[in-house]
Amino acid sequence: MEEIGRDASAQVVTFGDGPDEIRETRKRGGLTVGLATNELRRYELNPQKRTRLIKAGADIVVPDFSQCSKLLALLNINQP
Questions:
Q1: Reading across the β-sheet that carries 31-35, which strands appear in turn?
Q2: Which CATH class is domain 6-68?
Q3: Helix (H, G, I), strand (E, B) or coil at 5
Q4: Which are the contacts of 63, defined by CB distance < 8 A and separation ≥ 6?
Q5: Global confidence as pTM
Q6: What phi, psi does 74 have (nearest 5°)?
Q7: Rounded distance, CA 13 to CA 1, Å?
């Protein structure tokens, strides 16, 4: 993030399930999508992970990628 510069950092979206990547991206002006997936089931929401991601500053928290098209639309990313 530091190598691409502050202006370019604002164009970065980080997807992650840990507070570190969420926190570091937020510090540099990027957008963050926290993945609070129940890792045993591989889908659905893990409430504890959701809380950690919110505390870390996640802009958006999703349980999994089952609603990918809606997420891309929310992020204003064109779909093929």
A1: 13-16, 31-35, 60-62
A2: alpha beta
A3: coil
A4: 35, 36, 37, 38, 43, 44, 45, 46
A5: 0.86
A6: -60, -35
A7: 11
pLDDT 10s digit of each residue in the chain, 80 long? 677 777 777 789 999 999 999 999 998 889 999 999 999 998 899 999 999 999 999 999 999 999 999 999 999 888 76
- Domain regions of the chain by residue span: 6-68
Instruction: Kindly write down the DSSP assignment for every residue of 13-61, as one continuous string.
Output: EEEESSHHHHHHHHHTT-EEEEE-B-TTTTSSB-HHHHHHHHHHT-SEE
- Residue 62, classified by CB atoms within 10 Å of its CB into exposed (0-12), middle (13-18) or buried (19+), is buried
